[in-house]
Amino acid sequence: MAGGEITADEAYALGEAAADNRDELYAAAERITSRFNQPNFDSCSIINARSGKCPENCKWCAQSAHYKTKADVYPLVSREECMRHADLNRSQGIHRFSLVTSGRKMQGAELDRACEYYAELTERGGLGLCASMGLLERDELQKLWDAGVRRYHCNLESAPSMFPRLCTTHTLEDKIRTIDAAREIGFEICSGGIIGMGETPRQRVEFALSLRRVEPRSIPINILSPIPGTPLEGSEPLSDEEVLDTVALFRFVHPHTTLRFAGGRASLPRETQLRAIRIGMNGGIVGDLLTTIGSTVAADKTLVAESGLKF
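RESULT FIELD:
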């Protein structure tokens, strides 16, 4: 509260004590959120702009070509489809909009087309523009910047000690190179990941600490939605308390950062979602998500208002 930073040893100790001190932990996290953040809920919406046939083998992902799932497969969406989604989001008062594409990265003609979409969206105004297009090089990121994108998303996904068990076709260092290049250009960084993929509670703390390296302005926290056909399809769900512990611990490690409710939250009871927002989830991806269903924008607005934040 005085402006210091929790140490790694303190964060791990706090995580180990969480189960016996939940009410105190959650109350403290709520005070930290109130102290360092405005009473606003930072909303964003995403469009699954290119889907399926991804060559990467991320064990959680419906879009990986390594697994037999029922995910849709299509190339980059049309300009008309992109603008339709953006117009709807703008009309509903959503703050940010992002194209999210499958594959190791966007490149060539499809990247150029996406930049044309972003340039038009920039001209129309009214939305903060974000992009999530994989492991881009600096020159490719520069194209997005020149088109008006100001925030780049690339998840670290999980703790460094866990990630090699979840994906072997790229590394955390590959991700960090892209993130570093984006930050050098001037992008704000959005980077988080997924909990509930078999990691331990200690590894969730490790994950929170590892994100300090990439200096995110926004940390999306997804709760695994096991996808049939993927290696994680039989994963046991986290308890509500494990989710809330994670939110509280992330808030201690990242007092100033937007913690963003992302995929999987619709499976939580309403009261758990409310408590998570009060503890620290002061942002969210609203509407339908990538390959899992989110909640409606109207329902999100009602939930946020009940939590005491402004949408």
